[in-house]
Amino acid sequence: MNKKIGLVFPGSGSQYVGMGKKIYNDYGSVRQTFEEASEVLGYDLSKICLEGSVINLNKPRHVLASLLTISVSYFRVYMEEIGIAPSILAGHSLGEYSALCCSGAISFEDALKILLKRGALAEKVCKLTNGTMSALNNVSHHIVEKICDELQKQNYCVCISCYNSKNQVLISGNEDGIKLAEKEILKEHGEIVPFIGSPPYHSPLMKDIIDELEEELRKHKYLDLNYPVIANTTARPYESKDTISEHLIQHMYRPVRWLESIEYMKCQGIDVIVEAGPSNVLKNLIKDQIPQMKVLAMDEIQDLEQLLELKQTNYMGKNKLQDMKHKAIAMCLGIAVSTKNNNNDLEAHNTYLEAYKNIKNLRDKYAQDKSIIQDTHVIEAFTSLDKIFDSRLTSQQERQYRYEQLIEQTQLQEIYREFQKQKS
Fold first, then answer.
1. Is residue 190 one of the residues assigned to a domain?
2. Most buried in the list 266, 390, 391, 422, measured by CB within 10 Å?
3. How far apart are CA 214 and CA 246, in angstroms?
């Protein structure tokens, strides 16, 4: 059975100078993505993203474009290298735009233009309201909700803007309300991480610019989604392309229900979640919430290597892979029988019989329990088949044809490459 993969895309807080440098250097598709972005933005995004200062990168209009571009780049690398169609997509906050773009619902160019406007509007709100955000760790969201409710009764604007995990929420509001909330959180032994310079996303303060955002959203075309995308505000998939604009408007002033979104993915039978973007913020949040879930961050070298292994083993499905291994051994036996003998030497015939028996023993031994077949057993069958070719003076052209036929029917290219490596 194939593994069901969910892709998640990060939002603000995951950025860092130099993010994406490795894939930028290694993949032409990534450099092309940056060129597309720079053409729309009117400046060289790669300089800001790969070489610029932290201060410049963290400006709302820059960080939004940078995170979208890096996320789309990782998605393109994923499809290029792994190619396993995701069962579902989700993006945290800004990452929802990345998810919609990668699902085919919004073009990359249009997503950039919307985010340019969104970033400018967010900066406007920040200046007008003195709004900001903070992350609160090791404190229950129930406690934070009570604190925010009390402060709202005193006419302070402060609320939970992101339900990230069982142990983390984000709060947004004006600076005075945030500071008072932080004092109360410290009394509860919670930890505080201020988001310096961040606009108060996902809070009522953003309602002042909704009309302007809606005007921008109306300018663009929305297409059917190639993959389901979970909406932040409902923790359920978008109903259709016709609801995209409405969801993105609510997205500005309603909280991100990330905790519920990941639970929904789990309930849908997702086996592996892949974070397609810079850093590993979402990976850590998900592991905090569902420790048993396999989560891989493409920005981590070791995780990317595991993802490549997944392509070979889990994409095919473990049971099917084992069937293919046994089929390869059985095909070696069939090829051995049908290969013409061009050698009358008796000693060569004995070599043939020994190699033939070895392949037959491998086939019979694992016929009942294919789950225990190892790559080495298939390589052993290939080695015995090579001895048969040698004993029968089989031409190189026929050998190549036989192996190509075998690999085409079993899709065991990696095992065959390892066999060739050992031969040399």
1. no
2. 391
3. 8
On the CB side of 76, how many CA atoms lie within 13 Å of its CA? 20
Beta strands in 94-249, from DSSP E residues, in sequence order: 131-137, 158-165, 168-174, 191-195, 229-230
List the catalytic residues: 93, 202
Question: To which residue do tokens 């008072």 refer?
Answer: 180
Return the CA Rg of the chain. Answer: 28
Q: Which domain holds residue 400?
A: 318-423
Residue 105, SS3? coil
Separation between Cα atoms, residue 220 and residue 204, nearest integer Å: 25
What is the count of structural domains for the chain?
2
Interatomic CA distance for residues 148 and 152, integer angstroms: 6
- Nearest to 136, CA basis, from 150, 122, 151, 147: 147
pLDDT tens per residue across all 424 residues of the chain: 467 899 999 999 899 999 999 899 989 989 999 999 999 999 999 999 998 899 999 888 899 999 999 999 999 999 888 878 899 999 999 999 999 999 999 999 999 999 999 999 999 999 999 999 999 999 999 999 999 999 999 999 999 999 999 889 999 999 999 999 999 999 999 999 998 888 999 999 999 999 999 999 999 999 999 899 999 999 999 999 999 999 999 999 999 999 999 999 999 999 999 999 999 999 999 998 899 999 999 999 899 888 887 776 655 556 778 888 999 999 999 898 888 899 988 888 899 999 999 999 999 988 888 878 989 999 999 999 999 999 999 999 999 989 988 988 888 888 888 898 888 7
142-148's contacts with Cβ under 8 Å and 24+ in sequence apart are 143/185, 143/188, 143/190, 144/169, 144/171, 144/181, 144/185, 147/181, 147/184, 147/185, 148/181
- For the entire predicted model, the pTM comes to 0.74
Q: Helix and strand tally (H, E) in the chain?
A: 19, 9
214 and 335 within one domain: no
148 within a domain of the structure (yes/no): no
Question: Do 120 and 253 fall within a single domain?
Answer: yes
CA distance 236 to 255: 14
State the angle between helix axes of 375-391 and 413-423 in degrees (0 to 180), rounded to the nearest 10.
Answer: 60
Residue in 84, 157, 152 with CA at minimum distance from that of residue 309: 84
Look up tokens 């030497």; give the residue: 345
User: What is the SS3 assignment for 333?
Assistant: helix
Where on the phi/psi map is residue 325: left (φ > 0), alpha (ψ -120 to 50), or beta?
alpha
Contact criterion met (CB below 8 Å) for 63 and 31: no
Q: Crossing angle, helix 141-153 and helix 175-187, to 10 degrees?
A: 130
